[in-house]
Amino acid sequence: MPMPLRMGTGSVRMDANSRLRRVQTQSLSSLVDTLRKAVGLLDASHAGLKAMVLRQCDRIAQPTLRITVFGPFNYGKSTLLNALLGEKTLPIDLVPTTGAVITVSYGATLASRISQADGTPLEAPGTDLLKRYAILDDQRHMRQDVTAVAVQCPHPFLQSGVELVDLPGTDDHAIQNELVHTQLLEADAVIQLLDGRKLMTLTEREHLRDWLLERKITTVIFVVNFLNLMESEERQQVLHRLRFVAQDFRATLPDGVSNLYAVDALPALRARLKGNMAAATQSGLPALESALQTLVQERLPQVKNHRLPRLLPLAAQVQQILQQQLTTLEASPLLDRQVEIKQRVKVLLQTGFQQTVDEFQDWLRLDNLLNQYQSSFAMAIRAGTAVQWLEGTLQPGWKQKKRAVTEWVYKACDFFEQPRPVDLWIDWHKSKFSQSGNTKFSLEASNEAAHTYLTRFSETALEVLDNYKITANRILKTPIVAPSSQTQQNGQRLLLENILADLQQLQLEND
Ligand SMILES: Nc1nc2c(ncn2[C@@H]2O[C@H](COP(=O)(O)OP(=O)(O)OP(=O)(O)O)[C@@H](O)[C@H]2O)c(=O)[nH]1
Ligand SMILES: [Mg+2]
Question: Residue 264 in contact with residue 13, Cβ under 8 Å?
Fold first, then answer.
């Protein structure tokens, strides 16, 4: 019977924990900020790296914990996920099948959503859409017109904020491999599937290990499949060899979680579909499930900190390229160099501003405000503490987003030597609530009052922000003229050098 295989990972874990503590002392947002600024200065020829860094920076902020199943085609990845979910959700076939990155997250009912390249989403209950849009075509290529595939599934394991990702198999086409590798960088935990019948050679093993470790992907659990197709003696030998494979990999996992499990995916799925507990245990699935649960409990509350080390190799790469760019700039003719630097700073300011405006607008969208605040605001209205709630909850949110936007504008004003515009301002209409301090609201009436207030707030604030954008964009579009004095030239070069110094510091603190 396949059993979980316990490995001693104590010393590695200590090392990882002390590293994590150091990382936690950093201000996450300032590190991410430095990297965002740094990639803004990269030459156009590094667009790929820039996009990857920005994706990673965005990923840091997302609160969900993503577990990604990875392995060559036909190794049983989708079957294993289906067994974990206890349903035949994902397309399974004998030929290389999965043809898109499929993200499974929590939803009240089973449903699928396909994002298409032309922008039109397709949504339907169940998972029939996957059979049409998320499998490889006859030439075993992914469909070019599908950009994302998401499944919502009412499984309790997902409810706390877990996402499971099913990937196309590797070894098939270069482009698929690239997509899969990008996905691995965004995973918080990787389940690496192995086929008990064809174990990796030493070279393949070392290649995989180095690839993952170089990118600081260390939360890796190996799952060996297809042991059910082997004779008992052979199975023991395979397990014995696999212990060495797993020992060789310096995983960082919580106590009680091994980095090697044996699960027969198909028998596990069958057992789940029939509700046969004994057969499920025999397949090895519950041991893996319990390990994943422990992992989620430990990692979910501090998922952002665990992602941070992943940025460091990218930061090192960016730093190296910027260093080269600085050297080239210093060797180029004086005037060209100054104008080029200024142009880059301008683009950096424009992108930074636009990004914070987008985030501000997202926050101000009525559906977001209602989602985040309606119920707590309604409770405050009922309790007669609406003004305190506004001052303690909504106003700080507004201030924080506002500061992020205006800081870019202030920087632009300093850079272009322009006066600062009038600040973003909004009337909070607090008197409305202080006057009605003694009024008793019913549950329904307080909900209604919160809804009305947030609707007005959303509309007014979005309008105020739109007007601010017009003024700010006038400043941000100030034409660049060739600088005339040595002082100006030094100032601009300082910008590049400062970012380089920040990146260097970041590397030192985390080495
Ligand atoms: N006998 C046996 N068959 C299995 C087992 N696990 C998976 N299979 C079968 O292997 C085939 C491939 O499984 P999939 O889950 O589609 O594999 P995959 O890794 O998702 O494949 P791609 O998406 O193409 O990369 C299917 O026919 C499964 O039924 C197992 O433990 N035992
Ligand atoms: Mg698959």
Answer: no
Q: What is the pLDDT of residue 356?
A: 95
* Secondary structure element (H or E) that encloses residue 147, with its range: strand 146-153
- The mean pLDDT value for 480-492 works out to 58
Question: Residue 279 Cα, ligand 2 centroid: separation in angstroms?
Answer: 23
Integer CA distances (angstroms), 157 to 107, 154, 310, 439, in order:
11, 9, 25, 43
Distance 266 CA to ligand 1 centre (A): 7
Q: Which ligand 1 atom is the nearest neighbour of the CA of 98?
A: 23
Nearest-CA residue for ligand 1 atom 7 is 76
Q: Specify the ligand 1 atom closest to the Cα of 80.
A: 15
Confidence bin at 17 (pLDDT 50/70/90): very low
Where exactly are the structural domains of the chain? 10-307, 332-480
- Among 78, 79, 131, the mutation site with the greatest number of ligand 1 atoms within 8 A of its Cβ is 79
Spatial CA neighbour of 261 closest among 295, 231, 233 = 295
Ligand number nearest to the C-alpha of 225: 1
Q: What is the pLDDT of residue 436?
A: 56
Q: Read off the pLDDT band of 25 (50, 70, 90).
A: very low
CATH of 10-307, one of 3.40.50.720, 3.90.180.10, 3.40.50.620, 3.40.50.300: 3.40.50.300
Say whether pLDDT at 7 is over 50.
no
Residue type, 132: R
Cα–Cα–Cα angle for 333, 338, 340, nearest 5°? 95
